[in-house]
Amino acid sequence: MYGNQKAYVASSLSGDDMISSLMYDFAVKDSKCDHLCGVPYTALPIATLLSVKSKIPMLMRRKETKSYGTKKTIEGHYKAGQSCLIIEDVVTSGSSVLETVKDLKAEGLVIEDVIVILDREQGGSQNIDSNGMKLKSLYTMTQLINILLRKGEITKEMADDVRHYLSTTKAPVIKDHSLTMDRIKMSYEKRAELAQNPITKQLLNIMATKRTNLCLSADLTSTTKILSLLENVGEHVCMVKTHIDIIEDFNDDFLVQLKHLADKFNFLILEDRKFADIGNTVSLQYLKGMYKVAEWADMVTVHSLPGEGILKAFTGSINGVSRGVFLLAEMSSQGNLISAEYTKATIDMADKYSDLVTGFVCQNGEHIKNPAFIQLTPGVQLINAEDDFGQVYNTPETVVLEKGADVAVVGRGIVAAKNPESQAVIYKEALWECYVKRISNT
Ligand code: S5P
């Protein structure tokens, strides 16, 4: 039990004042957080007193969004990336805490700790823990019963009844992926503010302004066919993915035209080279050879297989122009040999290179916690299917809502359609609708 409790009980302080003094000494005074936020409504007086005492600015969460004006759910002065400590009076299941956290995380705030006056020990602590935070309680119900029993305020029978009730009545288990994957509830605009790599920032801003999270994989072998496809589809995509080495009539003029279309329609170019050699060779493959990928590709795909050295072959800018890298953390093909450990190690590898790495090519982004990284997911068609070579397709709903894709890659779903432009519109709208649903408060 916390040491000063007795002294405060005996003092002349009362009610909210005494509780806030206890809470201050217990968990606020040494906290390095940028903000405090009380869970509406009953914890608001305590949070307010703690904010005044600690001089840590308070944020307010509206339970009902205003129907007029800014429609903001969080009031206060804050920036994405700042930390916030949650204040609650009583925790049973933790669901109110989690609702508040969800809204704060949607604004890009970082939440690690929740402090509560009383933990009823019915599962709230476990729910908060399994959703990526720590609960610190001033009192547990067991401690409170023992104090009341010792003071003769309740009988032994009553204490046993309450203990029995608490141990047999457990709150439902709550696991919400959007709470552990911070990026999932955040808008692309907000995430752009956090991105360290200028290309990532640019991509997120293009997605937000063009209202599209569709990447076209232009897997055609003739330059004229690719250019005419992009002339029709360019306005609907945020990114075009190329395989430059499958083109049969490659020439330098193609690159000039490709860049012209990228400027005209405001999309970025990803060369899907899947580099996978030692750093020195990759550096030559990237900078030299007939394709001179570094000169025109905003981003490239890179395997993590050779280890960290491969990332040293790239720089965040070439001749003053920003560049980015997508690391392959998973593959969409049936029976591929990538393990869960490999995926996790790939994502961890990027931490030190956040000024270079734009994101990850993967199917399931549960390990991508940092909102500054983009999840790029290929293997997307309007119905679940498979091709003759083991490529597995999931629908827009599955990849965006269930698996966390930020950008979906569609190749043959559009390229092989009778009317690629109208098909691109169908994909664009379906994918955008899923994203809007994902970041909404439902
Ligand atoms: O795991 C992967 C990674 C990539 S980059 N699975 C993939 O399919 N890709 C690429 O995405 C693949 O090389 C192809 O260019 C595109 C998918 O094309 P589609 O025609 O199957 O949609």
From TrEMBL:
Keywords annotated in UniProt: Decarboxylase, Lyase, Pyrimidine biosynthesis
Catalytic residues (positions): D272, K274, D277
SMART domains reported in the protein's UniProt record: OMPdecase
Protein residues bound to substrate: D219, K241, S332, Q391, G411, R412
PROSITE patterns: OMPDECASE (PS00156)
Leader peptide range in chain numbering: none
Taxonomic superkingdom: Eukaryota
EC number, as in UniProt: 4.1.1.23
Catalytic activity line of the entry: orotidine 5'-phosphate + H(+) = UMP + CO2
InterPro entries assigned to the protein according to its UniProt record, in alphabetical order: Aldolase_TIM (IPR013785), OMPdecase (IPR014732), OMPdecase_AS (IPR018089), OMPdeCOase_dom (IPR001754), PRTase-like (IPR029057), PRTase_dom (IPR000836), RibuloseP-bd_barrel (IPR011060)
GO MF annotations in UniProt: orotate phosphoribosyltransferase activity; orotidine-5'-phosphate decarboxylase activity
Pfam families attached to this UniProt entry: OMPdecase, Pribosyltran
Pathway(s) served: Pyrimidine metabolism; UMP biosynthesis via de novo pathway; UMP from orotate: step 2/2
Segments forming a coiled coil: none
A GO BP annotation: 'de novo' UMP biosynthetic process
Family matches, as Gene3D superfamilies: 3.40.50.2020, Aldolase class I (3.20.20.70)
Record flagged with keyword Lyase: yes
SUPFAM superfamilies found in the cross-reference section: PRTase-like, Ribulose-phoshate binding barrel
Residue ranges of every copy of the Orotidine 5'-phosphate decarboxylase domain listed in the record: 213-427
Sequence similarity: In the C-terminal section; belongs to the OMP decarboxylase family.
The protein, known as: Orotidine 5'-phosphate decarboxylase
